[in-house]
TrEMBL record:
Membrane topology classification: Single-pass membrane protein
Coiled coil regions, renumbered to chain: 64-98
Additional free-text comment from the UniProt record: In plastids the F-type ATPase is also known as CF(1)CF(0).
Lineage: Eukaryota, Viridiplantae, Streptophyta, Embryophyta, Tracheophyta
Domain of life: Eukaryota
GO MF assignments: proton-transporting ATP synthase activity, rotational mechanism
Keywords: ATP synthesis, CF(0), Chloroplast, Coiled coil, Hydrogen ion transport, Ion transport, Membrane, Plastid, Thylakoid, Transmembrane, Transmembrane helix, Transport
InterPro entries recorded: ATP_synth_b/b'su_bac/chlpt
Protein name from the UniProt record: ATP synthase subunit b, chloroplastic
Annotated family: Belongs to the ATPase B chain family.
Length: 184
């Protein structure tokens, strides 16, 4: 205790202004200064420190609450996006399946239409060939008939004399007359 009182007493004795030096008596200077500074800090800084810590605590809690809300919102958005993705994938599969079946259906329809067209063309070709054959046959018949008629006329003209000609005409007139009497 004597040292403590001596240190208070020695406070009254300051070295002269011309000299500069260190006070090496640690027990005399530092604990007193530290206790005074700490006492002032605790007394005046206690409220400020509590306010700073309370503000910091409130900001941390607010940040945590906001983070939780954002996390929940993000989870909800992720779930909605995953559900929408599943729905779109299902629709894409349906479109793909429907598209393939539609393509197959169109392919079958096109093949059937082509077969029908080919069949109609074949029928038309056969009809055209038949018509052309009939026309050719008719032309040949007409020529043969004309040639036979010309040959027969030529032969008749050479073989018939006027007497035979008159008899043939009279016979034909008689036949026509008999036919006329029958119809009356």
């Amino acid at each position: 205790m004597k040292n403590v009182t001596d240190s208070f007493v020695s406070l009254g004795h300051w070295p002269s202004a011309g000299s500069f030096g260190f006070n090496t008596d640690i027990l005399a200077t530092n604990p007193i200064n530290l206790s005074v500074v700490l006492g002032v800090l605790i007394y005046f800084g206690k409220g400020v420190l509590n306010d700073l810590l309370d503000n910091r605590k409130q900001r941390i809690l607010s940040t945590i609450r906001n983070s939780e809300e954002l996390r929940k919102g993000a989870i909800e958005q992720l779930e909605r996006a995953q559900a929408r993705l599943r729905k779109v994938e299902i629709e894409a599969d349906e479109y793909r399946k429907n598209g393939y079946s539609e393509i197959e259906r169109e392919k079958v329809n096109l093949i059937n239409a082509t077969c029908d067209s080919l069949e109609q063309l074949e029928n038309f070709k056969n009809e055209t060939l038949h018509f052309e054959q009939q026309r050719a046959i008719n032309q040949v018949r007409q020529r043969v008939f004309q040639q036979a008629l010309q040959g027969a006329l030529g032969t008749l003209n050479n073989c018939l004399n006027s007497e035979l000609h008159f008899r043939t005409i009279r016979a034909n007139i008689g036949i026509l007359g008999a036919m006329e009497e029958i119809t009356d």
